[in-house]
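Bug report (template v2)

What were you trying to do?
Predict the complex of my protein with FE2/S2 (inorganic) cluster.

What happened?
Run completed; filing so the output is reviewed.

Input:
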Amino acid sequence: MMLIKDQWYVACPSSQLSDTEPTAIQIGSDFYVAFRDHKHEAHILLDRCCHRGVKLSLGNLRNGCIACGYHGWEYNGNGKLVSVPSLGAESSVPGYSVPSFPTIEKYQYVWIWVAGEQAEPNHEPVLRGVDSGSWIQQSAIWNTHVMPAVENQLDVAHTAFAHPGIYPTHRTSPGEIPTLRKADYICEIDHKSVLVVGTPVGSDIPDVLPTPEHPGSGFGLFELPYRNYVFLENEGVRAIYNWVPLSASSCRLEFLMRSKESDALVFNFQHGELELLSQDRILLESAQHWFGQGIETYEKSVLPDGAPLAARKLVKSLLDGSVCGHEEKRRITYSAFA
Ligand code: FES
Ligand SMILES: [Fe+2]
C-alpha cells in the first residue's frame, strides 16, 4: 500500500491511548505500537520486538516502558532496550533498540510522522477550522480503497440520493423524490488541495474563495495527506475526515464533527455509527469488488464529477512521483443540475 510520505497521519484518538495497555496501530501496511509513559507522554515504536520479532502490542506496560509478551524484554519510549530479564540484574543490557517514530499529540489525536525524504518532521499537523465548540469523534474501518472514500466527500451530486432526509441541504420527507440543489460549482486545484464551492446560479463567483478559517457559507476541501473538510456553515455543520489507508481494500476513518443541538438530524446513529457515514460506507463498500478489478473496466464520468476526479489525479501524481507542476491554482467551473 503506497502512502503519501512526509506527512502526519492520525495514529489514534488520544482517548484510545492508555498508560496501562499498549495500542496496536496500522498505517498503510506497517504495524506500530503506541503507549504512554509514566509522564503520560505518547510514544510510537515499530510493533516488532528485536529479539524474536513478536508484536510488542501483545505485551504490557511496566514502569513507563513496554515489555514484550514473549521473554519480557523492555523498551523505553525511544525504543531503547532497557531490560533483559533472562540476563539477571548483574549483567549489562545490550545496546539494542527498536525503531521509534516522531509522535505528537494535538487536536485530541496522536499523530505519527510517515517519513519519505524527511526523516524528521518539517511541520506540525494542522487541522483547520477546529473551534472551541464541542466536537464528536468517531473511528471506523471502511472496507474500501481510500480514494473512493476521499472522492465521496467532494462529490456534490450524491448527497440528495445517498442521504435523503438527512443531509442538511436536501432534507426531503419520506417518499419525496430527492432534488438536487441547482448551483454553479467552482473547483479550485493546486498541487496539494482541491476545493469545491457551490454558488447560487447566476451569482458572481466571489473574488475570495472560502477556507476553513473563513468558511463563507461552506465548501468541500481535500488536503494532503488524505483529509476532507465538509463545512456547511448555514447549517452549522463542520466535519473533518482524516483517512488512513490500510490496504488496497480498506482504510480507517478518523472523523470529527462539530456538534450542536440543532444537528439532531445529522446525529442519527445506526449500530453506533453516524447514519450519514454508514450510508456512504455501505455504498462505497459495494463498489470495492469492481474497483479492485480495475475501474477502467466500468467507470464512466460526467461533468459534475470534476472535483472527485481532480483529487484522484492529484494523489496519483504524488504517488507516482510526477508531482504535478500546478503550484498555481487552476480553476474548473461547471453548472450542474439545471
Ligand atoms: S521475542 Fe520479545 S522478548 Fe523475546
Ligand atoms: Fe455522503
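What did the reviewer find?
The mean pLDDT is 89. Residues 49, 51-52, 54, 68, 70-73 surround FE2/S2 (inorganic) cluster (ligand 1) (CB under 6 Å).
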